[in-house]
Amino acid sequence: MFGIADYGAFVAAIVVFLMIPGPGNLALITSTGKGGIRGGLACTAGVIVGDQALMWLAVAGVAALLAAHPALFHGVQWLGAAYLAWLGLRMLLAKPGAAPVLDMQPRHFLRQAFVITLLNPKAVVFYMAFFPLFVDPARHQGLLTFGAMALTIAVLTFAYGLSVVLLTHFLADRIRANRRVSTALEKLAGLFLVGFGIKLATQ
Predict the structure, then answer these.
(1) Using CA atoms, how far apart are residues 130 and 133, in angstroms rounded to an integer?
(2) Mean pLDDT taken over the chain
(3) Residue range 59-96, pLDDT digits in tens
(4) What are the φ/ψ torsions at residue 93 (nearest 5 degrees)?
């Protein structure tokens, strides 16, 4: 289909990739908790834009460049790890009632999610190594093939993001009623971000 080898497997791989716990999912949950449905959808848009940027960079040959120069990839990995750890530390050290680490305005949720996605080594590895496996060399149709893959990724990411946002919003209304639980969850989110950063820096 459009030069994509085993389209069904490609869709399944994207869904599994989206469901793997990581900074992107945490950003979706945190943004929805802070900014409601608008914040969560803005974050979803940021993830989609970040994914599209990584995919088209891979198409342009950046993936081959990173594969040929491991030091460059490790630099991206360290940069992403440091950014995640910095966000996590800010959330851990924030005092009750202080301005949120993730800005309440939807345009900032989008930008934050875009940067997290762009610097997430898990996403970089996917588009560098895994994504090309689904391109059928014999039936490849150039931009049509890549365009179909990009559209599929965007639609699946939006559907997944919307599901997470609606579920989180439903639960967030109940969580916000208890200030202690809300604060504890924010600290837990910060701890997870620091953990993600350390894991990415040491793997």
Answers:
(1) 6
(2) 76
(3) 787 666 666 777 776 776 677 677 767 777 877 776 66
(4) -90, -10
Cα 117 to Cα 176: distance, rounded to the nearest angstrom: 27
pLDDT of 186 above 90: no
Q: Which residues contact 109 (CB under 8 A, 6 or more apart)?
A: 31, 34, 35, 39, 40, 42, 43, 46, 102, 103
Instruction: Tell me what percent of the residues of the chain surpass a pLDDT of 90.
Output: 12
pLDDT for the residue 44: 93
Asked whether 112 and 120 are in contact (CB, 8 A), the reply is: no
In this prediction the pTM is 0.71
Would residue 3 be called left, alpha or beta, if left means φ above 0 and alpha means ψ between -120 and 50 degrees?
Answer: left
With contact defined as beta carbons under 8 Å apart, do 81 and 200 qualify?
yes
Q: Which of 23-27, 129-133, 145-149 has the lowest mean pLDDT?
A: 129-133
- Reduced to 3 states (helix: H, G, I; strand: E, B; else coil), residue 135 is strand
189 exposed, middle or buried (CB, 10 Å; 0-12, 13-18, 19+)?
buried
| Angstrom distance (rounded) from CA 189 to CA 165 | 16
How far is the C-alpha of 65 from the C-alpha of 47, rounded, in Å? 23
DSSP H or E stretch at residue 59? helix 23-59
177: Cβ contacts below 8 Å, ≥ 6 apart: none
* Helix, coil or strand: residue 4: strand
Amino acid at 96: P
Six token digits for residue 8: 């069904």
